[in-house]
Amino acid sequence: VSLALGFYGAFILNQSYISKVTEALFLFQMIEEGLKQCIGLSHEIIAATTPKPVTYKINKDSIKNSALGGLVKMYSLVSSNDDLIKKLREVERWRNFCAHNAYLHEYFSRKNSSPYSTHTEDDIDKVLLHTKELLAFLNEDVKKLTSLHSENVSHPFSI
Length: 159
Prior knowledge:
Low-confidence stretches: 5-10
Number of helices: 6
């Protein structure tokens, strides 16, 4: 716990809470990057295995520029892992909280109107555990897709 001075006066900051939210944001970013890899690999595999004269074009910019919600939607179109897709959709609201409301939550003494105002540091611990599990599952998909990609695509993958 430390003291910070700001426009509205002194704030008591819970450094442990801030560190955990920061770690959660990092993990959410890792999940986004893992999803981009899965989506991109899947699209390249589909493009490479589509029979001629049919063509399949990839919009890499839409993959690169999407946030978690859009990436989960794209991933759901190329993955049969319905359980992981469901869990990714469920965790999206916590990603949005950590990215957009954690500041208000911490710096305004948890008196803002965020629907997460009643959460505790223990809730962030649960989010951390859950995001680590999701990332591990996602990494397994990346490994499988990387192997499949090397069998079907003549060039290395890049997004």
